[in-house]
Amino acid sequence: MKNAVKYMGERYVGCGAREGEIIIEGVPGNDLGAYLDGAHITVYGNAQDATGNTMNDGTITIYGNTGDTVGYSMRGGAIYVRGNAGYRAGIHMKASIDKVPTLVIGGHCGSFLGEYQAGGNIIVLGLDSEGIPVGDFCGTGQHGGKIFLRTEKLPDDLPAQVIARQASEEDLSGIMPFIDTFCEKFGVEKDKVISKNFFVLVPNSKNPYKQLYCYN
Amino acid sequence: MLKEGSNGFRNPSGCAISGIFSKSGRRIPGDKIIKSIRIMHERSNGLGGGFAAYGIYPEFKDQFAFHIFYDHVKAKEECEAYLRNNFLIAFQSEIPTRKHPNICEAPLIWRYFAQPIEARLIEREIDEREFVSRVVTHVNTYIAGAYIFSSGKDVGVFKAVGYPEDVGEFYRLEEYSGYSWTAHGRYPTNTPGWWGGAHPFALLDYTVVHNGEISSYDANRRFIEMFGYKCSLLTDTEVITYIIDYLVRRQGLTMEETASVIAAPFWSVIARKSEEERRQLTFLRNMFAGLLITGPFSIILGFSGGIMALNDRLKLRSMVAGEKGDMAYVASEESAIRIIEPDLDRVWAPSGGEPVIFTLNGGEHKCR
User: Fold this and answer.
1) What is the reported pLDDT for B233?
2) Counting CB atoms within 10 angstroms of each CB, which of A22, A87, A143, A165 has the fewest?
């Protein structure tokens, strides 16, 4: 690839970067694009753990897989993963007025997807496998944001504080720009992606855990 | 030698593990595993590094290979007298090391290739493996300043205080070849680093490298000490080694069953399994409740003819596995695999509590 830099295990690549483009071949280390603040990172390969940790703006594009806790505490920008993600993808994602982060995973991901999610969109497409594209305990502790699952069947262990419903036209139109970008980046047919059913997971109230630990 | 936990000192957390295994039994030189663990340098803090190697002593493959640290000559004399009373020693020597700028304050480091005296087994009515495990417990508990840190056949543990790549050079591991290697870079969490507290921890041919910290340590220790083990090093990894020995060697569990005990699925997960699986998992959880290991961990267990990688059920530590031809790889980070094998046939992240087991071709999972 043009201008690509070879990496092997180096941590904090692009940490806090505000502008420009970082193109990577090989396997960058943990915390790729941590605190990323506007720059664009592309990885032609796999990434390790905590990709986009607490990133604020910009994009991270991964042609392979990524490890655990991708999008950890992410608060802005977008991450596109063509392959699979590990455990705890999108843990602690959050949003504010003009900051809505988005994490798109093309394949499947491990358990605890969107754990403690407070805002933003997590989209799991499950493109390369049949069946449910997430592991156990999906949405545990979710109290904001949306999790989109492209699947015919929901996991049977969703927490009581989370509502799963068919994604509405309105839900889908909100994420369509990201689906378009995903398909463009990775050369995936959009019709194939949107032909399947999408569920959306949201917390069932503004304060779903009110009496989980104590009477308050 | 300062034993762990004796001054209540705490450090922050990390650790790196890596394993290489040839399913065809091809012997791989030690510099390869050093290259793998070196790339994860930042995961350690220089307070411990170590390696386990299988198939390195073909000339003495029927003898137990003891690697022993001595704090002083008196400990060596006392331990050797004890060993001579119980074993026929075929060969003994200092373990070859080279001067290394980053490895200091080394104890005396000796190895012995030995076979138990038949009469000792007959008078106790036990087999040689049980006998050797009792000898290791005795020496490590009662002979002050002596510590047997490796005690299997055709396997050797090499460990020290330092970064793992330095420890590998110190022990001249490029001069050894084995079909299976594991490595550990330490970042001690709760206790200071000392030579005996470096990983791997070994008993017989079981060696354990571990990244994590065990919240259930005291519960596990109380259970396992009922069966003759002594957790004399006050470090959590030691207890994993004894749990493996107890479940696999003494109770005859398979590696998969052992994984279902120490990283048992949640009851809510068990409830969704088929009836047969549910019965089996419920039995194991109930039977060995005290051996459930909680808290974050990723471990690589080495044993004669195989290797098992396992995460805690919540997968709170990272683990990546890869395969290329007859070679299998497991490491905390994918880069530690790619640096020695860039072109993998397959690379994947095992799920929490899912054992990844590789054995020599035609070998059995149950290592007895």
Assistant:
1) 77
2) A165
C-alpha closest to that of B244 among B220, B216, B280: B220
Q: Within a domain: residue A49?
A: yes
Strand partners for B346:
B323
**A57, A35 Cβ separation under 8 angstroms:** no
**Span A143-184, pLDDT tens digits:** 999 999 999 999 999 999 999 999 999 999 999 999 999 999
Q: How many of the other CB atoms lie within 10 Å of CB of A74?
A: 32
Question: Measured between beta carbons, which residues in chain B are less than 8 angstroms from residue A49?
Answer: 318, 333
- Say which residue the tokens 């020290």 belong to: B160
pLDDT on residue B234: 67
Q: How many CA atoms lie within 13 A of B285 on its CB side?
A: 16
> Peptide bond before B200: cis, by omega within 30 degrees of 0?
yes
Closest-CA distance, A78 to chain B, in angstroms, reads 23
Name every chain A residue with its beta carbon within 8 A of the beta carbon of B315: 68, 86-87, 110-111
pLDDT tens track for B117-147: 999 999 999 999 999 999 999 999 999 999 9
Contacts of A26 in chain B (CB under 8 A): 338
Name the maximum alpha-carbon separation found in chain B.
Answer: 60
User: Is the domain defined by B16-215+232-248+296-359 classed in CATH 3.60.20.10?
Assistant: yes
- Residue A83: closest C-alpha in chain B: B348
Q: Is residue A214 part of a domain?
A: no
Q: Rounded CA gap, B255 and B260, in Å?
A: 9
- Quick one: what percent of chain A has pLDDT higher than 90? 90
**Structural domain for A146, as ranges:** 5-203
* Residue carrying structure tokens 């705490």: B10
Best B313, B332, B334 member to test A by mutation, with max A CBs in 10 Å, is: B334
What is the model's pTM? 0.94
Q: A129, exposed or middle or buried, with CB in 10 Å at 0-12, 13-18, 19+?
A: exposed
Q: How many CB atoms lie within 10 A of CB B282?
A: 15
Domain count, chain A: 1
Residue B193 predicted with pLDDT over 90: no
* Nearest CB partner across the interface for A8, out of B315, B318, B338: B338
Residue A213 placed within a domain: no
The complex scores an ipTM of 0.94
Lowest mean pLDDT among A74-88, B183-197, B322-336: B183-197
Give the helix/strand (H/E) hosting B23.
none
* Residues of B annotated catalytic, as ranges: 15
Instruction: Give the ranges where chain A is alpha helix by DSSP (H).
Output: 169-186, 190-194
User: What's CA B256's distance to the chain center, in Å?
Assistant: 17
Pairwise CB contact (< 8 Å): B318 & A68: yes
Residue B365 has pLDDT above 70, yes or no: no
Q: What is the C-alpha R_g of chain A?
A: 16
CA distance B142 to chain A (A): 44
Instruction: Report the residue of chain B nearest A29, measured CA to CA.
Output: B335
The angle, 0 to 180 degrees and rounded to 10, between the axes of the packed helices B255-262 and B275-287 is 70
Q: What pLDDT is attached to residue B213?
A: 87
DSSP for A73-121, written as a single string: T--SSEEEESS-B-TTTTTT---BTTB--EEEESS-B-SSTTTT-EEEE
